[in-house]
Amino acid sequence: MCVSSMSLWLRAESGSGPDESMAVQNWIDVLKSSQKTALIHDGKRKIHYLFADGKEMAEEYDLKTDELLSRKWRQKSTLGVPGVWQVEVGEPMNLPAALESDVIKENCSNPLFMRKDTKSSFQWRIRNLPYPKDVFSVSLAPSERCIIIKTTNKKYYKKFSVPDLDRSELPLDASALSYAHANNTLIVSYQKPKEIVTLEQELLKEVKKLKGTSEGDVDCKTQ
């Protein structure tokens, strides 16, 4: 299964059942009921969410375009120690300096996978893939709720979920999936269903109501 443990928790928090619209509304309610802190800094609107069980979500939006620039999650260990942030949207986080000496650094030519959405689509970019477009195969695995990328030359394979659809318990639609290749970068797009577009618009209205400070860090504790 592609669904992560974080996605499973989110689905449990937002409720489960056959009614997809109810699942979407329940997830909106979970977001609205969380404790939120806003920070305006460097042309970005940074929102920190603290959920009832201690899990955290941090998002960054472009102040001018309202584009979602990043989203990451973390949860505390059984001893109450904050865990490592898990990036869902945006540039992958660099390794802490303390770990760099113990880990072999990735070759700069290795494929780099990241998600960068648009207003209308979920979008993933995989850099450093210098193959023709006809080498790639991008498909859905509905039973696993995953998107699968393969190459006929067996040089690259990736299987990943769409957490937003898992949270709202929405089905995967093959007709929403497309891909392009240019400048050694594979771009995989999945058109957002109307339920997600509506949810994101409603959430954006909520975060814009928050009184953002202009100093500090979004990673601070919510009071």
Task: Briefly characterize the structure.
The protein has 223 residues and is α+β, with helices and mostly antiparallel strands. Helices cover 22% and strands 32% of the residues.
Describe the structure.
- The chain is α+β, with helices and mostly antiparallel strands and 223 residues long.
- It is 22% helix and 32% strand.
- It has helices at residues 5-14, 20-33, 97-100, 163-167, 194-209, and strands at 35-41, 44-50, 56-62, 68-74, 86-89, 112-115, 121-127, 136-141, 146-151, 157-160, 177-182, 185-191.
- Strands 1-2-3-4-5 form a five-stranded antiparallel beta sheet, covered by helices on one side.
- α1 crosses α2 (20-33).
- It starts with a helix and ends in a 14-residue tail after the last helix.
- 22% of the residues are buried.
- Residues 14-18, 95-104 and 216-223 have low confidence and may be disordered.
